[in-house]
Amino acid sequence: VVLDWGTSRFRAALVQPDGGVVDRIETGDGIQGLQREDFAGVLARALAPWGGHAPFAIVGAGMVTSRNGWVEVPYVACPADARAIAAGAQRIPLEGAGAVLLVPGLIDRAATPYPDVLRGEETQLVGLGLERDATVVLPGTHCKWARIERGAIRRFQTFVTGEVFALLAQHSFIARMAAPAPAADWAAFERGVAIAAADDARSPGLLARLFAVRTGWLDGAVAPREVGDILSGIVVGSEFAEARAAGWLAGAPRLVLIGGEELATRYVRAARAFGLAAEAGPADASILGALVISGIVA
Amino acid sequence: VVLDWGTSRFRAALVQPDGGVVDRIETGDGIQGLQREDFAGVLARALAPWGGHAPFAIVGAGMVTSRNGWVEVPYVACPADARAIAAGAQRIPLEGAGAVLLVPGLIDRAATPYPDVLRGEETQLVGLGLERDATVVLPGTHCKWARIERGAIRRFQTFVTGEVFALLAQHSFIARMAAPAPAADWAAFERGVAIAAADDARSPGLLARLFAVRTGWLDGAVAPREVGDILSGIVVGSEFAEARAAGWLAGAPRLVLIGGEELATRYVRAARAFGLAAEAGPADASILGALVISGIVA
User: What value of ipTM does the predicted structure carry?
Assistant: First the structure.
Protein backbone atom coordinates (compact mmCIF):
# COMPACT_ATOMS: atom_id res chain seq x y z
CA VAL A 1 0.00 0.00 0.00
CA VAL A 2 1.42 3.33 -1.04
CA LEU A 3 0.22 6.41 0.85
CA ASP A 4 0.31 9.96 -0.43
CA TRP A 5 -0.80 11.68 2.78
CA GLY A 6 -0.83 15.41 2.32
CA THR A 7 -2.10 18.52 4.04
CA SER A 8 -5.73 18.26 2.93
CA ARG A 9 -6.09 14.81 1.29
CA PHE A 10 -5.42 11.17 2.20
CA ARG A 11 -4.67 8.98 -0.84
CA ALA A 12 -3.84 5.27 -0.78
CA ALA A 13 -3.13 2.84 -3.60
CA LEU A 14 -3.20 -0.94 -3.31
CA VAL A 15 -0.31 -2.01 -5.49
CA GLN A 16 1.08 -5.28 -6.78
CA PRO A 17 4.84 -5.82 -6.43
CA ASP A 18 5.25 -5.00 -10.15
CA GLY A 19 3.60 -1.61 -9.69
CA GLY A 20 0.16 -2.55 -11.01
CA VAL A 21 -2.56 -0.65 -9.14
CA VAL A 22 -5.38 -2.87 -7.83
CA ASP A 23 -7.45 -0.22 -6.09
CA ARG A 24 -7.35 3.35 -4.83
CA ILE A 25 -8.88 5.16 -1.87
CA GLU A 26 -9.05 8.94 -1.41
CA THR A 27 -10.55 10.80 1.55
CA GLY A 28 -10.48 14.28 3.03
CA ASP A 29 -8.47 13.06 6.05
CA GLY A 30 -5.45 15.23 5.35
CA ILE A 31 -2.97 15.82 8.15
CA GLN A 32 -4.34 19.25 9.03
CA GLY A 33 -6.66 18.84 11.96
CA LEU A 34 -5.23 15.44 12.95
CA GLN A 35 -3.46 15.00 16.27
CA ARG A 36 -0.43 12.71 16.47
CA GLU A 37 -2.45 9.97 18.21
CA ASP A 38 -5.13 10.03 15.48
CA PHE A 39 -2.99 8.82 12.58
CA ALA A 40 -2.91 5.08 13.33
CA GLY A 41 -6.68 4.91 13.73
CA VAL A 42 -7.42 6.98 10.59
CA LEU A 43 -5.10 4.71 8.61
CA ALA A 44 -6.60 1.48 9.98
CA ARG A 45 -10.13 2.60 9.19
CA ALA A 46 -9.17 3.80 5.70
CA LEU A 47 -7.47 0.51 4.78
CA ALA A 48 -10.13 -1.76 6.37
CA PRO A 49 -11.79 -2.47 2.97
CA TRP A 50 -8.51 -4.03 1.83
CA GLY A 51 -8.32 -6.42 4.80
CA GLY A 52 -8.60 -9.45 2.54
CA HIS A 53 -5.24 -8.53 0.96
CA ALA A 54 -3.35 -8.39 4.28
CA PRO A 55 -0.59 -8.67 5.23
CA PHE A 56 0.85 -5.87 3.10
CA ALA A 57 3.75 -3.47 3.34
CA ILE A 58 2.74 0.19 3.79
CA VAL A 59 4.90 3.05 2.53
CA GLY A 60 3.97 6.69 3.12
CA ALA A 61 5.31 9.99 1.81
CA GLY A 62 4.25 13.63 1.82
CA MET A 63 3.38 16.03 4.61
CA VAL A 64 2.58 13.04 6.87
CA THR A 65 6.32 13.06 7.64
CA SER A 66 6.41 16.77 8.55
CA ARG A 67 6.39 18.62 11.86
CA ASN A 68 2.57 18.60 11.82
CA GLY A 69 2.36 14.99 10.62
CA TRP A 70 2.44 11.55 12.26
CA VAL A 71 6.16 11.59 13.01
CA GLU A 72 8.57 14.33 11.97
CA VAL A 73 11.08 12.41 9.85
CA PRO A 74 14.33 14.38 9.53
CA TYR A 75 15.17 15.63 6.04
CA VAL A 76 17.86 13.82 4.05
CA ALA A 77 20.44 16.26 2.62
CA CYS A 78 21.15 16.70 -1.10
CA PRO A 79 22.80 15.17 -3.01
CA ALA A 80 20.64 12.14 -2.23
CA ASP A 81 20.14 8.85 -4.05
CA ALA A 82 17.46 6.20 -3.44
CA ARG A 83 19.69 4.39 -0.93
CA ALA A 84 20.21 7.55 1.16
CA ILE A 85 16.48 8.25 1.13
CA ALA A 86 15.70 4.66 2.16
CA ALA A 87 18.28 4.90 4.96
CA GLY A 88 16.45 7.94 6.36
CA ALA A 89 13.02 6.31 6.35
CA GLN A 90 11.33 5.54 9.68
CA ARG A 91 9.35 2.39 10.53
CA ILE A 92 6.29 2.93 12.71
CA PRO A 93 5.05 -0.40 14.12
CA LEU A 94 1.28 -0.75 13.96
CA GLU A 95 -0.82 -2.21 16.73
CA GLY A 96 -1.41 -5.88 16.01
CA ALA A 97 0.99 -6.42 13.15
CA GLY A 98 2.92 -4.74 10.38
CA ALA A 99 4.38 -1.28 10.13
CA VAL A 100 4.34 1.89 8.08
CA LEU A 101 7.54 3.01 6.42
CA LEU A 102 7.64 6.83 6.34
CA VAL A 103 9.85 8.26 3.57
CA PRO A 104 11.92 11.34 4.50
CA GLY A 105 11.80 14.58 2.57
CA LEU A 106 14.89 16.32 1.22
CA ILE A 107 16.75 19.47 2.22
CA ASP A 108 18.99 21.46 -0.10
CA ARG A 109 21.35 23.33 2.22
CA ALA A 110 22.97 25.17 -0.68
CA ALA A 111 19.74 27.05 -1.40
CA THR A 112 19.51 30.74 -0.48
CA PRO A 113 18.48 32.61 1.59
CA TYR A 114 17.46 29.53 3.62
CA PRO A 115 17.76 25.79 2.94
CA ASP A 116 14.99 24.64 0.59
CA VAL A 117 12.82 21.63 1.42
CA LEU A 118 10.41 19.17 -0.15
CA ARG A 119 8.34 16.21 1.06
CA GLY A 120 6.75 13.71 -1.31
CA GLU A 121 8.52 14.83 -4.49
CA GLU A 122 11.62 12.78 -3.52
CA THR A 123 9.51 9.64 -4.01
CA GLN A 124 8.30 10.83 -7.43
CA LEU A 125 11.88 11.60 -8.47
CA VAL A 126 13.04 8.12 -7.45
CA GLY A 127 10.05 6.73 -9.36
CA LEU A 128 11.14 8.59 -12.47
CA GLY A 129 14.58 7.04 -12.03
CA LEU A 130 17.88 8.66 -11.11
CA GLU A 131 19.98 6.87 -13.73
CA ARG A 132 19.57 9.42 -16.52
CA ASP A 133 20.49 13.05 -15.93
CA ALA A 134 17.48 15.36 -16.12
CA THR A 135 15.99 18.61 -14.91
CA VAL A 136 12.61 17.67 -13.49
CA VAL A 137 9.68 20.03 -12.96
CA LEU A 138 6.91 18.99 -10.57
CA PRO A 139 4.13 21.59 -10.93
CA GLY A 140 1.62 22.22 -8.18
CA THR A 141 0.72 24.62 -5.39
CA HIS A 142 4.43 24.90 -4.66
CA CYS A 143 6.21 23.81 -7.83
CA LYS A 144 9.61 22.12 -7.50
CA TRP A 145 12.48 22.12 -9.99
CA ALA A 146 15.03 19.37 -9.30
CA ARG A 147 18.31 18.39 -10.89
CA ILE A 148 19.11 14.68 -11.28
CA GLU A 149 22.78 14.12 -12.04
CA ARG A 150 25.15 11.18 -11.67
CA GLY A 151 22.54 8.99 -10.00
CA ALA A 152 21.40 11.43 -7.34
CA ILE A 153 19.08 14.37 -6.69
CA ARG A 154 21.68 17.17 -6.57
CA ARG A 155 19.62 20.30 -5.84
CA PHE A 156 16.15 21.71 -6.11
CA GLN A 157 14.19 24.94 -5.87
CA THR A 158 10.62 25.87 -4.96
CA PHE A 159 8.39 28.35 -6.81
CA VAL A 160 4.98 29.15 -5.27
CA THR A 161 3.39 29.39 -8.70
CA GLY A 162 0.18 27.39 -8.20
CA GLU A 163 -0.78 29.25 -5.05
CA VAL A 164 -0.11 32.70 -6.52
CA PHE A 165 -2.13 31.82 -9.63
CA ALA A 166 -5.08 30.59 -7.57
CA LEU A 167 -5.10 33.73 -5.38
CA LEU A 168 -5.02 36.05 -8.39
CA ALA A 169 -7.61 34.07 -10.35
CA GLN A 170 -10.05 33.96 -7.43
CA HIS A 171 -9.62 37.15 -5.44
CA SER A 172 -7.85 39.91 -7.40
CA PHE A 173 -8.68 42.71 -9.85
CA ILE A 174 -8.05 40.06 -12.50
CA ALA A 175 -10.88 37.88 -11.17
CA ARG A 176 -13.26 40.82 -11.64
CA MET A 177 -12.36 41.13 -15.35
CA ALA A 178 -12.61 37.43 -16.19
CA ALA A 179 -15.47 35.65 -17.93
CA PRO A 180 -15.72 31.85 -17.78
CA ALA A 181 -13.96 30.01 -20.61
CA PRO A 182 -15.46 26.76 -21.92
CA ALA A 183 -12.03 25.12 -22.30
CA ALA A 184 -8.34 25.94 -22.09
CA ASP A 185 -7.55 28.73 -24.57
CA TRP A 186 -4.03 27.79 -25.65
CA ALA A 187 -3.53 30.87 -27.80
CA ALA A 188 -4.30 33.09 -24.80
CA PHE A 189 -2.07 30.97 -22.55
CA GLU A 190 0.83 31.27 -24.97
CA ARG A 191 0.39 35.03 -25.26
CA GLY A 192 0.72 35.18 -21.48
CA VAL A 193 3.86 33.02 -21.57
CA ALA A 194 5.31 35.24 -24.29
CA ILE A 195 4.86 38.32 -22.07
CA ALA A 196 7.03 36.61 -19.45
CA ALA A 197 9.49 35.07 -21.90
CA ALA A 198 10.26 38.32 -23.70
CA ASP A 199 13.55 39.69 -22.52
CA ASP A 200 11.72 42.92 -22.01
CA ALA A 201 13.38 45.51 -19.81
CA ARG A 202 10.04 47.24 -19.24
CA SER A 203 8.37 44.12 -17.74
CA PRO A 204 11.14 42.40 -15.86
CA GLY A 205 9.09 40.63 -13.19
CA LEU A 206 5.74 39.33 -12.05
CA LEU A 207 4.52 42.48 -10.24
CA ALA A 208 4.82 44.51 -13.45
CA ARG A 209 3.62 41.78 -15.83
CA LEU A 210 0.38 41.11 -13.96
CA PHE A 211 -0.94 44.58 -14.80
CA ALA A 212 -0.74 43.62 -18.49
CA VAL A 213 -3.98 41.69 -17.97
CA ARG A 214 -5.75 44.97 -17.24
CA THR A 215 -3.92 47.12 -19.80
CA GLY A 216 -4.48 44.44 -22.45
CA TRP A 217 -8.17 44.41 -21.57
CA LEU A 218 -8.37 48.23 -21.73
CA ASP A 219 -6.47 48.14 -25.03
CA GLY A 220 -9.00 45.68 -26.51
CA ALA A 221 -6.26 43.05 -26.87
CA VAL A 222 -7.54 40.73 -24.12
CA ALA A 223 -11.16 39.50 -24.06
CA PRO A 224 -12.80 38.67 -20.73
CA ARG A 225 -12.90 34.93 -21.56
CA GLU A 226 -9.13 35.04 -22.33
CA VAL A 227 -8.26 36.58 -18.98
CA GLY A 228 -7.85 33.29 -17.06
CA ASP A 229 -5.46 31.73 -19.57
CA ILE A 230 -3.47 34.93 -20.14
CA LEU A 231 -3.01 35.08 -16.37
CA SER A 232 -1.99 31.41 -16.25
CA GLY A 233 0.52 32.03 -19.03
CA ILE A 234 1.99 35.08 -17.30
CA VAL A 235 2.39 33.25 -13.97
CA VAL A 236 3.76 29.97 -15.36
CA GLY A 237 5.92 31.93 -17.81
CA SER A 238 7.26 34.00 -14.92
CA GLU A 239 8.26 30.77 -13.17
CA PHE A 240 10.22 29.77 -16.27
CA ALA A 241 11.77 33.25 -16.50
CA GLU A 242 12.88 32.98 -12.86
CA ALA A 243 14.14 29.44 -13.41
CA ARG A 244 16.08 30.67 -16.44
CA ALA A 245 17.64 33.48 -14.40
CA ALA A 246 18.53 30.92 -11.71
CA GLY A 247 20.37 28.80 -14.29
CA TRP A 248 17.93 25.90 -14.53
CA LEU A 249 17.75 26.10 -18.34
CA ALA A 250 21.49 26.46 -18.93
CA GLY A 251 22.95 23.86 -21.24
CA ALA A 252 19.52 22.89 -22.63
CA PRO A 253 18.90 20.06 -20.14
CA ARG A 254 16.60 17.08 -20.72
CA LEU A 255 13.41 18.49 -19.18
CA VAL A 256 10.88 16.11 -17.63
CA LEU A 257 7.43 17.05 -16.31
CA ILE A 258 5.81 15.08 -13.49
CA GLY A 259 2.24 16.01 -12.66
CA GLY A 260 -1.39 15.87 -13.65
CA GLU A 261 -2.11 15.96 -17.35
CA GLU A 262 -3.59 19.45 -17.64
CA LEU A 263 -0.84 21.14 -15.64
CA ALA A 264 1.84 19.13 -17.41
CA THR A 265 0.45 20.27 -20.77
CA ARG A 266 0.70 23.90 -19.68
CA TYR A 267 4.30 23.43 -18.59
CA VAL A 268 5.29 21.61 -21.79
CA ARG A 269 3.88 24.51 -23.81
CA ALA A 270 5.62 27.07 -21.60
CA ALA A 271 8.92 25.17 -21.97
CA ARG A 272 8.60 25.41 -25.75
CA ALA A 273 8.35 29.22 -25.51
CA PHE A 274 11.63 29.11 -23.60
CA GLY A 275 13.26 27.02 -26.33
CA LEU A 276 13.08 23.60 -24.66
CA ALA A 277 11.31 20.38 -25.59
CA ALA A 278 9.91 18.75 -22.45
CA GLU A 279 8.75 15.18 -21.98
CA ALA A 280 6.14 13.81 -19.58
CA GLY A 281 7.31 11.53 -16.77
CA PRO A 282 5.44 8.39 -15.63
CA ALA A 283 1.90 8.99 -14.36
CA ASP A 284 2.43 6.88 -11.20
CA ALA A 285 5.91 8.09 -10.33
CA SER A 286 5.14 8.20 -6.62
CA ILE A 287 4.08 4.54 -6.59
CA LEU A 288 7.16 3.41 -8.51
CA GLY A 289 9.33 5.43 -6.16
CA ALA A 290 7.72 3.98 -3.04
CA LEU A 291 8.41 0.44 -4.31
CA VAL A 292 12.06 1.28 -4.87
CA ILE A 293 12.57 3.08 -1.56
CA SER A 294 10.87 0.28 0.39
CA GLY A 295 13.12 -2.29 -1.28
CA ILE A 296 10.25 -4.17 -2.96
CA VAL A 297 11.66 -3.28 -6.38
CA ALA A 298 15.41 -3.05 -6.84
CA VAL B 1 -14.17 71.02 -3.53
CA VAL B 2 -11.65 68.38 -4.54
CA LEU B 3 -12.97 64.84 -5.13
CA ASP B 4 -10.92 61.67 -4.98
CA TRP B 5 -13.61 59.30 -6.21
CA GLY B 6 -12.25 55.78 -6.43
CA THR B 7 -13.47 52.23 -6.89
CA SER B 8 -14.58 51.67 -3.32
CA ARG B 9 -14.43 55.07 -1.56
CA PHE B 10 -15.75 58.59 -2.11
CA ARG B 11 -13.54 61.30 -0.61
CA ALA B 12 -14.14 65.03 -0.78
CA ALA B 13 -12.19 67.94 0.65
CA LEU B 14 -13.49 71.48 1.09
CA VAL B 15 -10.49 73.60 0.22
CA GLN B 16 -9.61 77.28 0.34
CA PRO B 17 -8.01 78.78 -2.78
CA ASP B 18 -4.60 78.63 -1.04
CA GLY B 19 -4.93 74.85 -0.48
CA GLY B 20 -5.95 75.00 3.16
CA VAL B 21 -8.41 72.20 3.97
CA VAL B 22 -11.57 73.36 5.77
CA ASP B 23 -13.35 70.02 6.02
CA ARG B 24 -13.31 66.46 4.69
CA ILE B 25 -16.00 63.90 3.90
CA GLU B 26 -15.43 60.21 3.23
CA THR B 27 -18.10 57.61 2.43
CA GLY B 28 -18.29 54.11 1.00
CA ASP B 29 -19.97 55.39 -2.20
CA GLY B 30 -17.18 54.25 -4.53
CA ILE B 31 -17.93 53.99 -8.22
CA GLN B 32 -18.45 50.21 -8.12
CA GLY B 33 -22.14 49.56 -7.91
CA LEU B 34 -23.06 53.04 -9.16
CA GLN B 35 -24.88 53.48 -12.46
CA ARG B 36 -24.05 56.46 -14.65
CA GLU B 37 -27.27 58.25 -13.68
CA ASP B 38 -26.50 57.86 -9.94
CA PHE B 39 -23.38 60.01 -9.79
CA ALA B 40 -24.96 63.48 -9.73
CA GLY B 41 -27.32 62.53 -6.94
CA VAL B 42 -24.66 60.82 -4.83
CA LEU B 43 -22.47 63.90 -5.19
CA ALA B 44 -25.23 66.36 -4.31
CA ARG B 45 -26.20 64.44 -1.19
CA ALA B 46 -22.58 64.05 -0.09
CA LEU B 47 -21.83 67.77 -0.44
CA ALA B 48 -25.13 68.99 1.08
CA PRO B 49 -23.52 69.70 4.50
CA TRP B 50 -21.25 72.25 2.78
CA GLY B 51 -24.18 74.13 1.22
CA GLY B 52 -23.35 77.25 3.22
CA HIS B 53 -20.05 77.54 1.35
CA ALA B 54 -21.63 77.46 -2.13
CA PRO B 55 -20.99 78.35 -4.85
CA PHE B 56 -17.75 76.40 -5.17
CA ALA B 57 -15.74 74.88 -7.98
CA ILE B 58 -15.67 71.05 -7.97
CA VAL B 59 -12.71 69.11 -9.36
CA GLY B 60 -12.70 65.31 -9.49
CA ALA B 61 -10.03 62.72 -10.27
CA GLY B 62 -9.61 58.95 -9.94
CA MET B 63 -11.65 56.04 -11.24
CA VAL B 64 -14.70 58.34 -11.48
CA THR B 65 -13.30 59.25 -14.93
CA SER B 66 -12.97 55.61 -16.07
CA ARG B 67 -15.13 53.39 -18.24
CA ASN B 68 -17.13 52.36 -15.16
CA GLY B 69 -17.27 55.90 -13.79
CA TRP B 70 -19.46 58.95 -14.31
CA VAL B 71 -18.06 59.82 -17.72
CA GLU B 72 -15.19 58.05 -19.44
CA VAL B 73 -12.68 60.85 -19.91
CA PRO B 74 -10.14 59.92 -22.61
CA TYR B 75 -6.56 59.45 -21.41
CA VAL B 76 -4.00 62.15 -22.13
CA ALA B 77 -0.82 60.72 -23.67
CA CYS B 78 2.64 61.01 -22.13
CA PRO B 79 4.64 63.16 -22.11
CA ALA B 80 2.04 65.38 -20.42
CA ASP B 81 2.33 68.63 -18.48
CA ALA B 82 -0.30 70.36 -16.33
CA ARG B 83 -1.59 72.32 -19.34
CA ALA B 84 -2.14 69.16 -21.42
CA ILE B 85 -3.94 67.49 -18.53
CA ALA B 86 -6.14 70.58 -18.01
CA ALA B 87 -6.94 70.64 -21.73
CA GLY B 88 -8.20 67.05 -21.52
CA ALA B 89 -10.50 67.69 -18.54
CA GLN B 90 -14.26 67.48 -19.04
CA ARG B 91 -16.87 69.80 -17.50
CA ILE B 92 -20.10 68.17 -16.42
CA PRO B 93 -22.82 70.78 -15.76
CA LEU B 94 -24.80 70.10 -12.60
CA GLU B 95 -28.54 70.52 -12.35
CA GLY B 96 -29.29 73.92 -10.95
CA ALA B 97 -25.87 75.51 -11.11
CA GLY B 98 -22.18 74.86 -11.26
CA ALA B 99 -20.23 72.02 -12.79
CA VAL B 100 -17.75 69.28 -11.99
CA LEU B 101 -14.40 69.31 -13.74
CA LEU B 102 -13.24 65.72 -14.31
CA VAL B 103 -9.47 65.35 -14.67
CA PRO B 104 -8.24 62.85 -17.30
CA GLY B 105 -5.91 59.99 -16.53
CA LEU B 106 -2.70 59.37 -18.45
CA ILE B 107 -1.66 56.74 -20.95
CA ASP B 108 1.96 55.75 -21.65
CA ARG B 109 1.88 54.28 -25.14
CA ALA B 110 5.57 53.35 -24.98
CA ALA B 111 4.89 50.78 -22.26
CA THR B 112 5.01 47.08 -23.11
CA PRO B 113 3.29 44.74 -23.77
CA TYR B 114 0.32 47.13 -23.72
CA PRO B 115 0.03 50.89 -23.05
CA ASP B 116 0.09 51.55 -19.31
CA VAL B 117 -2.55 53.73 -17.65
CA LEU B 118 -3.25 55.66 -14.46
CA ARG B 119 -6.14 57.74 -13.11
CA GLY B 120 -5.78 60.01 -10.11
CA GLU B 121 -2.00 59.88 -9.81
CA GLU B 122 -1.65 62.54 -12.56
CA THR B 123 -3.23 65.02 -10.14
CA GLN B 124 -0.85 64.02 -7.34
CA LEU B 125 2.14 64.41 -9.69
CA VAL B 126 1.01 67.90 -10.73
CA GLY B 127 0.55 68.68 -7.02
CA LEU B 128 4.12 67.64 -6.31
CA GLY B 129 5.20 69.98 -9.11
CA LEU B 130 6.69 69.18 -12.50
CA GLU B 131 9.44 71.82 -12.39
CA ARG B 132 12.13 69.67 -10.80
CA ASP B 133 13.13 66.34 -12.37
CA ALA B 134 12.27 63.38 -10.18
CA THR B 135 11.36 59.72 -10.14
CA VAL B 136 8.14 59.52 -8.15
CA VAL B 137 6.76 56.41 -6.46
CA LEU B 138 3.07 56.34 -5.52
CA PRO B 139 2.56 53.17 -3.44
CA GLY B 140 -0.84 51.53 -3.16
CA THR B 141 -2.91 48.62 -4.41
CA HIS B 142 -1.42 49.25 -7.84
CA CYS B 143 1.79 51.18 -7.25
CA LYS B 144 2.93 53.65 -9.91
CA TRP B 145 6.47 54.76 -10.74
CA ALA B 146 6.56 57.94 -12.78
CA ARG B 147 9.34 59.99 -14.33
CA ILE B 148 9.11 63.79 -14.23
CA GLU B 149 11.56 65.42 -16.61
CA ARG B 150 11.77 68.80 -18.31
CA GLY B 151 8.46 69.95 -16.92
CA ALA B 152 6.35 66.94 -17.92
CA ILE B 153 5.36 63.44 -16.86
CA ARG B 154 7.41 61.45 -19.36
CA ARG B 155 6.56 57.82 -18.60
CA PHE B 156 5.25 55.58 -15.87
CA GLN B 157 4.88 51.94 -14.90
CA THR B 158 2.46 49.99 -12.72
CA PHE B 159 3.37 47.28 -10.20
CA VAL B 160 0.50 45.42 -8.50
CA THR B 161 2.44 45.24 -5.24
CA GLY B 162 -0.22 46.22 -2.72
CA GLU B 163 -2.77 43.77 -4.06
CA VAL B 164 -0.32 40.85 -4.20
CA PHE B 165 0.82 41.60 -0.64
CA ALA B 166 -2.76 41.68 0.67
CA LEU B 167 -3.67 38.39 -1.03
CA LEU B 168 -0.62 36.63 0.36
CA ALA B 169 -0.98 38.09 3.85
CA GLN B 170 -4.66 37.16 4.09
CA HIS B 171 -5.16 33.93 2.13
CA SER B 172 -1.90 32.04 1.51
CA PHE B 173 0.34 29.47 3.22
CA ILE B 174 2.09 32.55 4.64
CA ALA B 175 -1.09 33.69 6.41
CA ARG B 176 -1.22 30.33 8.19
CA MET B 177 2.31 30.77 9.61
CA ALA B 178 1.85 34.34 10.81
CA ALA B 179 1.22 35.53 14.34
CA PRO B 180 -0.04 39.07 15.00
CA ALA B 181 2.69 41.67 15.54
CA PRO B 182 2.06 44.55 17.93
CA ALA B 183 3.78 47.08 15.64
CA ALA B 184 5.83 47.25 12.46
CA ASP B 185 8.98 45.16 12.90
CA TRP B 186 11.48 47.14 10.86
CA ALA B 187 14.28 44.61 11.31
CA ALA B 188 12.07 41.88 9.84
CA PHE B 189 10.91 44.18 7.03
CA GLU B 190 14.50 45.00 6.11
CA ARG B 191 15.50 41.32 6.12
CA GLY B 192 12.71 40.76 3.60
CA VAL B 193 13.89 43.66 1.46
CA ALA B 194 17.46 42.31 1.60
CA ILE B 195 16.26 38.94 0.22
CA ALA B 196 14.89 40.79 -2.80
CA ALA B 197 17.77 43.25 -3.11
CA ALA B 198 20.49 40.61 -3.10
CA ASP B 199 21.73 40.00 -6.61
CA ASP B 200 21.17 36.36 -5.89
CA ALA B 201 20.97 34.04 -8.86
CA ARG B 202 19.18 31.41 -6.77
CA SER B 203 16.27 33.74 -5.91
CA PRO B 204 15.80 35.87 -8.99
CA GLY B 205 12.09 36.63 -8.68
CA LEU B 206 9.02 36.83 -6.51
CA LEU B 207 7.76 33.25 -7.02
CA ALA B 208 11.02 31.84 -5.66
CA ARG B 209 11.53 34.44 -2.94
CA LEU B 210 8.11 33.97 -1.36
CA PHE B 211 8.99 30.42 -0.29
CA ALA B 212 11.77 31.89 1.85
CA VAL B 213 9.10 32.80 4.39
CA ARG B 214 8.41 29.11 4.93
CA THR B 215 12.01 27.89 4.67
CA GLY B 216 13.11 30.65 7.05
CA TRP B 217 10.40 29.58 9.49
CA LEU B 218 11.43 25.91 9.21
CA ASP B 219 15.06 26.95 9.66
CA GLY B 220 14.23 28.82 12.86
CA ALA B 221 15.29 32.11 11.27
CA VAL B 222 11.79 33.61 10.99
CA ALA B 223 9.47 33.83 14.00
CA PRO B 224 5.69 33.73 13.47
CA ARG B 225 5.33 37.39 14.55
CA GLU B 226 8.01 38.39 12.00
CA VAL B 227 6.21 36.70 9.10
CA GLY B 228 4.02 39.68 8.10
CA ASP B 229 6.91 42.15 7.90
CA ILE B 230 9.30 39.72 6.19
CA LEU B 231 6.59 39.17 3.58
CA SER B 232 6.06 42.93 3.22
CA GLY B 233 9.81 43.36 2.76
CA ILE B 234 10.03 40.62 0.13
CA VAL B 235 7.11 42.01 -1.88
CA VAL B 236 8.10 45.70 -1.69
CA GLY B 237 11.75 44.73 -2.25
CA SER B 238 10.72 42.72 -5.30
CA GLU B 239 9.01 45.81 -6.68
CA PHE B 240 12.28 47.73 -6.28
CA ALA B 241 14.22 44.85 -7.87
CA GLU B 242 11.86 44.90 -10.86
CA ALA B 243 12.04 48.70 -11.05
CA ARG B 244 15.84 48.46 -10.98
CA ALA B 245 15.80 45.91 -13.80
CA ALA B 246 13.48 48.22 -15.74
CA GLY B 247 15.97 51.07 -15.39
CA TRP B 248 14.06 53.23 -12.91
CA LEU B 249 17.04 53.51 -10.55
CA ALA B 250 19.64 54.25 -13.22
CA GLY B 251 21.58 57.44 -12.69
CA ALA B 252 20.56 57.64 -9.00
CA PRO B 253 17.50 59.83 -9.58
CA ARG B 254 15.93 62.14 -7.02
CA LEU B 255 13.34 59.72 -5.56
CA VAL B 256 10.09 61.13 -4.12
CA LEU B 257 7.43 59.11 -2.29
CA ILE B 258 3.78 60.18 -2.38
CA GLY B 259 1.43 58.23 -0.16
CA GLY B 260 0.20 57.52 3.32
CA GLU B 261 2.77 57.78 6.09
CA GLU B 262 3.14 54.09 6.95
CA LEU B 263 3.48 52.93 3.34
CA ALA B 264 5.81 55.81 2.52
CA THR B 265 8.04 54.81 5.46
CA ARG B 266 8.27 51.26 4.10
CA TYR B 267 9.22 52.52 0.66
CA VAL B 268 11.82 54.97 2.00
CA ARG B 269 13.45 52.10 3.92
CA ALA B 270 13.33 49.81 0.90
CA ALA B 271 14.89 52.55 -1.26
CA ARG B 272 17.78 52.76 1.19
CA ALA B 273 18.48 49.01 0.73
CA PHE B 274 18.71 49.74 -2.99
CA GLY B 275 21.20 52.53 -2.41
CA LEU B 276 18.88 55.51 -2.76
CA ALA B 277 17.81 58.25 -0.37
CA ALA B 278 14.12 58.99 -0.88
CA GLU B 279 12.18 62.02 0.26
CA ALA B 280 8.48 62.30 1.12
CA GLY B 281 6.27 64.41 -1.13
CA PRO B 282 3.52 66.76 0.11
CA ALA B 283 0.75 65.06 2.10
CA ASP B 284 -2.05 66.74 0.11
CA ALA B 285 -0.55 66.41 -3.35
CA SER B 286 -3.90 65.57 -4.93
CA ILE B 287 -5.48 68.78 -3.58
CA LEU B 288 -2.60 70.95 -4.75
CA GLY B 289 -2.76 69.26 -8.15
CA ALA B 290 -6.50 69.80 -8.49
CA LEU B 291 -6.07 73.52 -7.78
CA VAL B 292 -3.43 73.80 -10.50
CA ILE B 293 -5.32 71.75 -13.10
CA SER B 294 -8.53 73.68 -12.50
CA GLY B 295 -6.67 76.98 -12.92
CA ILE B 296 -7.39 78.22 -9.39
CA VAL B 297 -3.67 78.22 -8.64
CA ALA B 298 -1.18 79.05 -11.38
Answer: 0.94
